[in-house]
Amino acid sequence: MLDWFTLGLTAIALLIGALGLANIMLITVTDRTPEIGIRKAIGARRGAILRQFLIEAMLIAGIGGLIGVGLGVGATITGQHLLPRYAPMWGMPVISIPAIGIAFGISLLIGLLAGCYPAIRAARLCPMDALRH
Fold this sequence. Notes:
Elements: H1 2-31, H2 33-41, H3 46-86, H4 97-123, H5 127-132
């Protein structure tokens, strides 16, 4: 029961994080519309603009993933020192390298998925409309 609760709570947190990241990226696209227009006017292709915004979204999510992994490793190390002394019946927490890799990979995937719509929106801007903005 506790595993299912933890999984559900994690899924909700990831969904909220993805929505927040998508919202931030949409605001970024809106704020940088003139820059996008200039880039398109001098010959930037849709793929270049799409890649730029996807990389930015994945970078933001990756930094958040690194912070989360750091906090998790810190909590595990703290638990390794405190649990045997105060609650030996709970066992010793273990740091799992594959779990760290999966957690970081999921954060990058969330960044990629959350950045898709804003990146597509930025890539589809008409240069004339973007410069007029």
